Amino acid sequence: MVISSAQKVKHSEQFTHKIFQVPYEAGTTVETVSKKHIEKGATSYEVFKILVELDRVHCECLLNNTDFLNGLRGFDLLVHDTVASCYVLLAEYLDILRVEIIPTPPNTPLSAKHMIPMPVSYVPYAIPGYPLTDKMTFLQRLANLGMYTVGTFFMTVADNTKDDLKLKYNIKPERSFLEAAGKAELVLITADFALEYPQPLLPSNIMVGQLSAAKEPVPLSQEFEEFVTNSSHGFIIVSFGSNVGALSEEKVNMLAAAFGKLRQRVVWRLKGYIPSSLSSNIKAVEWLPQNDLLAHKDIKAFVSHVGHNSLYESVYHGVPLVGFPLYGDQFFNAKKVEHFGLGLYVDHNSFEVDEMVEKIEQVISEPRLKAEATRISGLLRDRPRTPLETTGDWIEYVLRHGGARHLRAQVLNIPWYQYYLLDVMAFLVAVATLTVTVIMLTCRCLCRLCCTKSESKTKKE
Questions:
Q1: Which of 39, 153, 272, 288 is the most buried if burial means most Cβ atoms within 10 Å?
Q2: Same domain for 32 and 106?
Q3: Alpha-carbon gap, residue 230 to 202, rounded angstroms
Q4: 159 touches 113 (CB < 8 A)
Q5: Residue 133: inside a domain, yes or no?
Q6: Position 13 in a domain
């Protein structure tokens, strides 16, 4: 496992960790970006620049360490998260096969470099700021096209920064980064159409399902078990993922006031600022066994930032949600929660204490939300292999056959103007224009000829 020194990873004795150094403290990168996202807004260009710069620094630190890179030679396959785009260059440098994992649905900006089909007429583009569903009006389809165009442009700009690194480190500079990115043997998408909007995929795009959702729960520790079972009204859990320390003190106080008014007990993942006086029904912890709590028989609801993993884990266990998105794809996921009838959405910028209490109580008491979460849970569970097993099957398939070239669509080998048939349209427009011009000129010549004969006849008469 190759990771940077800024990542917090629990080491395992089952495999070796190779750590390269970056000029950031462990864990600070995620928290810094999260706070910037929340402060500046989901579509901030400033945040985009920060992310691009962080990615560039990480990549430079990896590629500049020749001894570290040479210590990775001799492997057969590289599996990496598509967000960590520098590993495209690492695979080229090591000249090994590569399988890419997209940790989101297929209709996001991350899919652009893999030419995953995006018919924007009926597939909403998952970009922050203006979440849509697959039922769009004319104006929404217009906005969807605009967001797809802008999102693809910015992702292309971000990816093009890797071309300089290819030249600098002489990593197959004859082809662009986008060409290299398209050389993945497979693209494994950690999503399931039970919880996504249907759309076409290429043969090498495999929907494997969410990897952490299908884990078997383990019994809770005595600390958690005693707290959640000693309540006649059940319990809810609250977690905002890696953004747990990014909320302002004002918002934490408002949330604490809201949770204190509930009849249910509340297990709240909270670190950093903790209110001095919490209601007796609230248990604040820095970490909680989210999957195990979601599987508990007494859980009533999940108040979540609705990140991709949390959304799938909640629905897998049939638990309705109160969406509290903070940035990025979380707004799109919160819209999806309401669209699929899995819960309700609260705006973190304008919510009030009473509104939060009302939404939580509504989610707990509304039978249709629980019923729909249970229905989709059944769809997610009804598969011959678990997401982890499916992922393993496909990775082993690539290794057995030395790649998966037969699944690679020609779309990855043609320029963008051919993909959009611009050359064909230009030819058809040229032919149509030439034909109309010839007809017009012919008509004009005939008219002049007729007029000339008419004038000559009149003079003779």
A1: 288
A2: yes
A3: 51
A4: yes
A5: yes
A6: yes
Tally of structural domains, the chain: 3
CB 346 within 8 A of CB 323: yes
Q: DSSP code of 101?
A: E
Task: Give the pLDDT confidence of 268-290 residue by residue, as tens digits.
Answer: 999 888 888 899 999 999 889 99
Q: What's the domain range around 446?
A: 415-455
Q: According to the model, what pLDDT value does residue 248 have?
A: 83
Phi, psi (degrees; rounded to nearest 5) at 255: -65, -40
Residue 102 has pLDDT above 90, yes or no: yes
Query: Looking at the structure, do residues 259 and 402 belong to the same domain, yes or no?
Result: no
CA torsion 257-262-263-266 (nearest 10°) is -80
Of the residues 338, 357, 381, which one is the last residue of a structural domain?
381
Instruction: Enter the tokens of residue 128.
Output: 């922050």
Q: Are 120 and 424 spatial neighbours (Cβ–Cβ below 8 Å)?
A: no
Amino acid in the structure at residue 78: L
Residue 301 near residue 369, CB atoms below 8 Å? no
For the CA atoms of the chain, what is the radius of gyration? 28
CB–CB of 99/75 below 8 Å?
no
CA 204 to chain centre: 18
Domain shared by 227 and 248, yes or no: yes
- CATH number for the domain spanning 314: value is 3.40.50.2000
Note whether 265 and 318 are same-domain residues: yes
Task: Tell me if 361 sits within 8 A of 344, measured CB to CB.
Answer: no
Tokens of 230: 């000693």
Query: Looking up tokens 């000249």, which residue turns up?
Result: 95
Contact assessment for residue 51 and residue 33, using Cβ atoms and an 8 Å cutoff: yes
342 vs 331: CA distance, rounded Å: 15
Q: Which residue blocks in 76-202 are alpha helix, DSSP H?
A: 86-94, 138-168, 177-181
Residue 323 has pLDDT above 80, yes or no: yes
Domain contains 149: yes
Picking from 46, 422, 378, 350, the residue whose alpha carbon sits closest to that of residue 195 is: 378
Same domain, 164 and 199: yes
Residues 372 and 390 in one domain: no
For tokens 């007029």, what's the residue? 451
